[in-house]
Structures are given as C-alpha cells and as structure tokens.
Amino acid sequence: MIVVGCPASVSLAQRIAKKLKCKYTTLEHRHYPDGEIYIRFMKKVKGETVVLVQTLALSDNSGPNHKIMELLIAAHTARDLGAKKIVLVMPYLAYMRQDIRFNPGESISSRAVGEVLSLYADAVITIDPHLHRYKSLREVYHADPCVLGAAGLISEYIKGRFKNPFIVGPDKESYQWASKVAEPLGCGHTVLLKKRYSDRHVEVFFQEEVDVRGKDIIIVDDIISTGHTIVEAVKGVRKLGAKKIHVIGVHGIFAEGALSKIRKAGAKSVVTTNTVPGRTAEIDVSGLIAASLKGF
Ligand code: R5P
After folding, report:
1. CB of 171 closer than 6 angstroms to any ligand 1 atom
2. pLDDT at residue 153 above 90?
3. What is the pLDDT of residues 159-212, one digit of tens each?
4. Furthest-apart CA atoms within the chain: distance in Å
5. Which of 128, 220, 224 to mutate to test the pocket of ligand 1 (most atoms within 8 A of CB)?
6. What does DSSP say about strands 244-252 and 165-169: parallel, antiparallel, or unpaired?
C-alpha cells in the first residue's frame, strides 16, 4: 500500500501513512499558465494499492471544484500507471447537500460528482458525509463506500475539558451527532429546529425547555460553512442565559469569515477535526482513517 498526500491533505496523509507504517508520497503539482492542472507521481505505483487522500472543502484559496479535478486526474493517472487498487480518502465530501431537486431543472450535483469519482475508485472512505435524504452513501458512490464517524473522537475531546457539558445540535439532522457525542459522556442533549430561508439566512428554534444554567453548552454540527447556523444557535442558547458556549464541528469550512462571526456571536471556543486543515483543526482523524485502511 502507498498513501499519497494530494495537495489539499498532505499533512493528514502523512499522519495516516505513519500510523500504517506504509509507503508515502506526495504529488508534484502545479498549474499551467492557462490554469490547467499538472500532476506527477513521484514514486512507482504499479501493482500497489494506492490511497489518494484529498479533502474536498474550500481551503487554501481553492474551492471544492478544483480539488475534485486534482483528485480525478490523480486517480486516472494512478490507474494509467498500473495501480492494483485505488482508494479515495475524501475526509470532507463536497456536494452532499445537493441531494434532491429542490426546484425543477436543478442538478442533483451530489450524484454527478459521485458518479464521476466512482469511475476511478475501487473504494471510497469519508467521514460524516452529509447523509440527510440519502440513507446510504452507496446511493451516491458506486465504488465500495466506507463511512466513518467522528462522534467518538469529539466525545473524547470534550471529556476532561468540560465539567458539566450539555450538547446542542442546531437542527434536526444534527441529532445523529448530538446524541452520539452525548451518550458516552452521559450528559444531556437537545436538537433545535432550523428554518433555512436562503444560503445565508437561517433561524433556529428550541423544541423543548432546556436548563442551561451552570452548564458548558457545546454546539455540535457536521458542517460549518457560512456559520449562520451556528451563529443562530449560539444566539439562541445565549438568550436562555448560557454563559459558557463552545462549538465543535466535524468539517470546518468557514466560508465568508464564518469563524470570526461565530466568535463575535459569543462562542468561547471553536474546534473542528482535521478533515479540513486550519486553525481550529484540533481533533485528529488520522487514526480513524488508518484503522479503516487496515482491511485493504
Ligand atoms: C446542514 O444541514 C448542515 O448540517 C449544517 O448545519 C449546514 O451545512 C451549515 O451551513 P452554514 O454554516 O452555512 O449555516
């Protein structure tokens, strides 16, 4: 097996390879003057199980589309060079929120991306993909999909750091994370009701009475994109009188200055996993991914 650190996930890929004690390489990559992508493998991949690690989130000034293209070209090249098996590790899987046609004529882009990437993969590994209307990732990725969850790591992170945690999920879909994070901690949790009016306009409502006094309120969600969902949740718990409010996200995308908006709203700390690299990425998922690769 050889682990390949694709441009968006070099440091995570290095950690995975170290944990697996297997071969590691990066890709030589650059842009041609016209913006097209140049990719070159620096080690032989013929006959190997090639693990391409590339997160698909907005980061380092490039968006998901560019990262998808880099990954496609890398996977195609690996096959072309005689790889035995290709495993795509995409810690953050982009486009999963476009899972139905909300309006006539719209693209279901999760399927478009899933179908194309599946063409060049024998297996796909990801962490907490946004499975809302899809029951399983298999509906989107035909290549053998493996879905990992970061809830256990988040619980571990909270344990020892917070004395009296209470977990809040900002919307109905966040129940899966809020309940899984709260369970091993033996603490309470609740999920709010969210109404989304547009990409940047959401409102959240409490569905039950919650006593937040003296508690460390920890708002947990899968994706923090524009941050509006979290900002509204922070404001909501503050209205109830919460003083110690913390935010933990699986995938910290932080588009459009989201991080400072969340801090300004009153969050004392904002922490995410390193599925997306960045200042908040304190929870390491490399062990989780490495363990899932042991079967290949
Ligand atoms: C949506 O259902 C997700 O779980 C997140 O709550 C959402 O994607 C966050 O988006 P934003 O940060 O733009 O409000």
Report:
1. yes
2. yes
3. 989 999 999 999 999 998 999 999 999 999 999 999 999 999 999 998 888 899
4. 61
5. 224
6. unpaired
